[in-house]
């Protein structure tokens, strides 16, 4: 076997037991300002959505320039004079991928030259018909430089017979399918579109008299921009020197916002559909406690995404919430062989239990999901090694049983522990003293009461967008 395939990444080892988001995007049109610096601060605030590469394209003096690299935003733009230059507009991107698939040519934004001039584009999500479109385009002479499906969108735009970029983008948007949010930058305008089902997030903000778009509202807060609203499903916006204009890029479908934005992906200080992410997670934790009473001494959460839910759980069952696990946020890219001992070491370097807190205690461990079960098992082992008497696992989502084709890194059902095992079998595998998932009807009721239209396909295979060739076995 290739030695590279036998390596694991210490930094990402904890994340492999959770669904992984693809990336985060940002765009700004603010002539005469330091648009690159605003983009930098926004990307830093979106870093949780992708840590493998970062990039931005700057519109300056009627031309576009691309700057990107592998690593964190602060690494890619360290000591960059670009950040203090004046420009008209900019778009930025942070990307998540596995270490085996992160060449620089697959990083974003993309910058191309076509008949109408320069065009830069970046996206969050996945086009589920990208492979078929790529084959069709290659048969007609298109040459691809990367593996990312966004390049399909670039070729569709460049081949359009329409005379404006917005009409070319609209034509392309009506040919692609999936969950996505996209930003486009030309020498004289910024465009942004959201998929017809609103699966991936995209919001609109304003700084002074200028407009910005971002994957999450926390990016607006980082640059002191005012949140205006979320981009509607299928909507496109054009931002230029004339201001803001809206158009329908694709017909709106069944509104189905990814539930995992609230459960796991988004930062707790972000807001979607007029609701704070932290507040919703607390409610999930409280409802989970009501469903799954167990005698225990304290509640801990797996940092960082499950802290809010653990606080809600502790409040509901009148137990103390404690910081039983400490997360190391400063691991670099260090690779080790994936033996059982090495994986345990990787988890310990990422998450270390506080012996004083958990020793001799019956612990309720709150987490947002279990994808493969490997890391959860190692966390339980670590807690018991430092003296936890019992570890009861509580998950703030239903069993993750079906892969997501819309931009979340779970490719097959074979990877998903809940697709192939009963809850009792999962409990035995992860060696928990008890295990309870939030009931799907409870989850759906919470979102329904808060007027949040969610996609629950990873729990029940009710896919809002599906191609005939996309087959998902339920048995």
Gap between N and C termini? 31 Å
Topology, number of strands: 25
CATH 2nd-level architecture of the largest domain: 4-Layer Sandwich
Give the CATH H-level superfamily of the largest domain. Answer: Aminohydrolase, N-terminal nucleophile (Ntn) domain
Features:
475 residues; alpha+beta; Glutamine Phosphoribosylpyrophosphate, subunit 1, domain 1; Rossmann fold; 2 domains; 7-stranded antiparallel β-sheet; 6-stranded antiparallel β-sheet; 25 strands; 27% strand; disordered N terminus; disordered C terminus
Q: How does this structure look, described?
A:
The longest helix is centred in the middle third of the chain and has 15 residues, at 277-291. The strands form 7 sheets. Strands 4-3-5-2-11-10-12 form a 7-stranded antiparallel sheet. A 6-stranded antiparallel sheet has the order 6-7-8-9-13-14, with helices on one face. The chain has a 4-stranded parallel sheet with strand order 18-22-23-24, with helices on both faces. The protein folds into 2 domains: 3-255, Glutamine Phosphoribosylpyrophosphate, subunit 1, domain 1 (4-Layer Sandwich); 276-454, Rossmann fold (3-Layer(aba) Sandwich). Helix 10 packs across helix 12. The chain is 28% helix and 27% strand. The protein has 475 residues and is α+β, with helices and mostly antiparallel strands. Strand 10 and strand 11 (210-214) form a beta hairpin.
